[in-house]
Design a protein that fits this description.
205 residues; alpha+beta; Jelly Rolls; 4 helices; 18% helix; 24% strand
Length: 205
Amino acid sequence: MPHLNIAKLRTAELRKDPFEYTIVPGFLDRDSLSAVVESYPKLKGGSYPLETVETSQALQEVIDELDGPAFEDAIAEKFGVDIAGKPKMYSLRGYCRATDGKIHTDSKDKIITVLLYLNENWPHETGKLRMLRSGTDLESYSEEVAPDGGTILIFKRSDKSWHGHGPFEGERRSIQMNWMISEGKRGFHAVRHKISAGFKKLTAA
């Protein structure tokens, strides 16, 4: 049974103000979300390359679907981009620090950014990602996205793709996926098939 609702992504609205993005609530099946949350690795603050983390079967199955052709085709069609054969980068987050969420656009070597939120609910007022109209004002935004319910946020990186959130500290789980322009100097890992279990276990903050 598929974990991801690709059909829902295909019919989702593509917003173009203030930049190109789409939001799909419930993109991850509710039962799948519960299984991923229950087995999610305990991570400290920061972003962890996928190959450094030991993943559960549930999480790995979700990642495999993100890495599949159906998801890639839906993204290419939605945003009108040619990403076939482009390297991909995956990372996990599990704990948000009060200093995280500062306004930024993402680096120029990224084509598409995908954020799949892995929190069953979000009772907090802060920590919701905002699609911003400038790089200086967190209060000037077109939309605010709660990082819960298996929601996925996808945007096309540009010089206007400003986003960020207010200070929050606590658990805030997500998968970040990017299609990259090239492997580049940082040696990004191009994922094509199932990723093996990671090299180290990480402890909670």
